[in-house]
Predict the 3D structure of the following.
Amino acid sequence: MTASRNSAVGEQESAGSTEASKPHKSVKGSKGARPESRPESRLALVRRARRINRELAEVYPYAHPELDFENSFQLLVATVLSAQTTDLRVNQTTPALFAAYPTPEDMAAADPEALEQLIRPTGFFRAKAKSLLGLSAALRDHFGGEVPGRLEDLVTLPGVGRKTANVVLGNAFGVPGLTVDTHFGRLVRRWKWTAQEDPEKVEAEIAALFPKSEWTMLSHRIIFHGRRVCHARKPACGACPIAPLCPAYGEGETDPDKAKKLLKYEMGGQPGQRLRPPSDYPGRPAAPLGAAE
Ligand code: SF4
């Protein structure tokens, strides 16, 4: 660890009384850090990865899927809609959609143009409408109108890939799964848990670092951290609670005050993405579509 790194983390710890940094729980000491030049052994990597997971669990004890849903069908639909847009936009769109088509049978029988208009705010609405009509018909015709609880069945549905299937399995069926989305991939590469770019290879390498029972919550924690602190373009390194464990510290803003201004959602005192967040979520709910955000 460099002197500047120590000092940035120390300043961040001492600034813990501000509103923006309230949810943080900083890593104590610098034992987990390693000199950048020394190659890390497999054992050290596993230990560091698991320590990051433990720290994130303390920072985000309320980590959860950020799509609003009440059953497996709603989660499946919401996850398909979340491609190329924010969970917030999906959450603002799905109340009217689920009111109009509460079951796979209802959605399979939808007028395509009416369906397109309802999901229009999520972008790519023609392709997404096609997927929703196709997957609803497949659920009705091949799975008795129920969402199947097996990966091999889920990936046969139109518009459903491995990532969507893992989201549904992990959050509607309690089957452990890793969700390798853009945040997950970026962060695990920054942390040097893997150098892979291909999501399936990333999934396999990260799966090997953790017990299966951790996979679903690990995914939520990483995605939470990516959305709030470790952003793609300007990570808030100076306000990052796991900075001492991160080989990419310094890729973003290291000044604690400037970094704090980059924090998002509940960590930045802003509304979250869910209109109906879980009761333990410490932030504010998101506003409905059309309301001032
Ligand atoms: S790159 Fe910066 S913000 Fe991201 S985890 Fe590392 S120290 Fe934290």
Q: What stands out?
A: Residues 92 and 288 are 5 Å apart (CA to CA).
